[in-house]
Design brief:
Elements: E1 2-6, H1 14-26, E2 31-35, H2 41-49, H3 55-72, H4 79-105, H5 110-117, H6 119-134, E3 139-142, H7 144-147, E4 150-151, H8 162-178, E5 182-186, E6 189-192, E7 197-199, H9 204-216, E8 221-225, E9 246-248, H10 249-257, H11 268-274, E10 278-282, E11 291-294, E12 306-319, H12 329-338, E13 344-349, E14 353-359, H13 363-377, E15 380-393, H14 403-412, E16 421-422, E17 429-435, H15 439-451
Parallel strand pairs: 1-2, 1-8, 2-5, 3-5, 4-6, 8-10, 9-11
Antiparallel strand pairs: 6-7, 10-11, 12-14, 12-15, 13-14, 15-17, 16-17
């Protein structure tokens, strides 16, 4: 049994949905489909709730949202279309009440925010189910909160509780498949033990697909997108970047975490626990082999397989004499920042300083947090913005002599100053920061050093 995940770019137009339908219909084995929101919908929801709105603005927004999804339904009248129209109307009505509630109370809690954001996937599941049913498949839209995809209580970046998910998802989905039904499952969100919707963050449907595969002990997982898979570098930086045919779980996780927006960073974790293969597929180029992700420990002669990056980061440095010997020093800083919703990309320590890499957009919040708590966690601090984080990834990197020297020699040849370096935490990756203005030539020069061209 396969798990087929379709991203938002695969669901936004009539042509894309026809392609999705063909993929599912031509599948020779049983399948479970999981879907993102249609292209642009989640971003439009985020933007809409980010500012105060009037009743007229809410009505206009919801009308456009409803009409867009109605327009994606099969054009021919019939019972399936009628049922889908009724389901869309119900979901728009619920969203209407949520948005009016936010307007009248002038309050948007994390719980309400996540519930609002989940509307895109709920609508997409109805549309895809209707399209598959129109193509003579017995499909049914299913929502992960109703199925019991249980998560922790962290909104916007939730983590699935896999033991609970297996117990809840397996009976319902297995039974549906055995009855010849194609489940069309909402991605991107689950539900806490307290019964509140929680979302997984950007590309969260990849993670949903992996959790479903774990729960049913089945695979492979096919991640359908508008790209071929993981590349040796960002083609915007390196025109000659090429497709990587195979990655280990660890390599894929590192690349996803450090900027390659092909896969949710946590998506490999449930699959790895079960030894389930994943493959990135291009909906618009079915002949492309994609990138396979699994237990393979295949290495290149020159070790490095890809160069990834995170632009616009900042370095937060907290100074304290004897910091390296103070019990709980790093933990206190981490807690201080996490309480403000700030993600920590990486941290390095010395006897007198702890250096943490954060998103540049979080610099103001970090500064405020540190000013409030500095007396408890350090003597002074500084924040340096305008940085970029570069990551080199390849199986065996941590066990091969001379690779780091080649990287830094190549970078130095372009007069780029390397700042914070982190090596040893992973056997397949290491990363370092450079000035944002030097990012492009850094990526290009590393690619040239290990692959011979840019």
């Amino acid at each position: 049994m396969k798990i087929l995940k379709f991203g938002g770019s695969c669901l936004g137009t009539d042509d894309a949905l026809k392609r999705v339908t063909r993929v599912v219909k031509n599948e020779e084995e049983d399948s479970i489909v999981t879907v993102s929101a249609a292209s642009g919908v989640t971003n439009s929801l985020k933007e809409f709730v980010s500012a105060p709105r009037s009743e007229r603005e809410i009505d206009d927004f919801l009308l456009k949202l409803k009409l867009r999804h109605i327009d994606l339904l099969p054009k021919r009248d019939g019972e399936n279309r009628k049922e889908a129209l009724e389901m869309i109307e119900k979901k728009i009505t619920k969203l209407d009440r949520l948005l009016y509630g936010v307007m009248y109370t002038e309050e948007l809690t994390p719980r309400t925010y996540d519930l609002i954001l989940s509307a895109g996937e709920r609508l997409a599941a109805v549309v895809v189910s209707a399209r598959l049913s129109h193509a003579k498949l017995d499909a049914a839209a299913m929502e992960t909160d109703a199925l019991g995809l249980v998560t922790n209580n962290e909104h916007f970046n939730a983590v699935a509780i896999l033991s609970e998910c297996e117990k809840n998802l397996r009976p319902t989905l297995q039974s549906a498949v055995e009855r010849g039904i194609v489940p069309v499952v909402t991605g991107f969100f689950g539900i806490t033990k307290n019964g509140h919707v929680s979302t997984f963050g950007r590309s969260g449907t990849d993670y949903t697909a992996s959790v479903i595969a774990y729960s049913l002990k089945t695979g492979p997982i096919e991640i359908w997108k508008e790209v071929d898979g993981f590349l040796s570098a960002d083609p915007k930086m390196v025109k000659s970047a090429f497709l990587i045919d195979r990655l280990s779980y660890e390599e894929a996780a590192e690349l996803a975490y450090f900027g390659a927006q092909v896969l949710h960073p946590r998506a490999v974790q449930p699959a790895r626990q079960r030894g389930i293969d994943m493959v990135i597929k291009n909906l618009y180029d079915l002949k492309s082999p994609g990138t396979w992700i699994g237990t393979s420990k295949a290495t290149r002669k020159d070790v490095i397989k890809s160069v990834s990056y995170v632009p616009k980061v900042a370095t937060l440095k907290i100074y304290d004499t004897g910091a390296g010997y103070k019990s709980g020093f790093l933990s206190d800083i981490s807690t201080c920042l996490t309480n403000e919703g700030i993600n920590l990309f990486s941290a390095t320590t010395s006897q007198t300083c702890v250096a943490i890499i954060i998103d540049e957009g979080d610099a103001a919040a970090a500064r405020k947090a540190m000013k409030t708590h500095i007396a408890g966690v350090g003597e002074s601090f500084e924040i340096e913005s305008g940085r970029a984080l570069v990551c080199a990834v390849g199986e065996g990197l941590g066990r091969t002599k001379g690779v780091a020297a080649r990287v830094f020699k190549a970078v130095a040849s372009k007069n780029v100053n390397v700042e914070l370096i982190s090596a040893g935490a992973s056997t397949v990756a290491y990363h370092f920061t450079v000035d944002q203005k030097d990012l492009k030539k850094t990526v290009r020069e590393i690619h040239k050093e290990f692959f011979g061209y840019v």
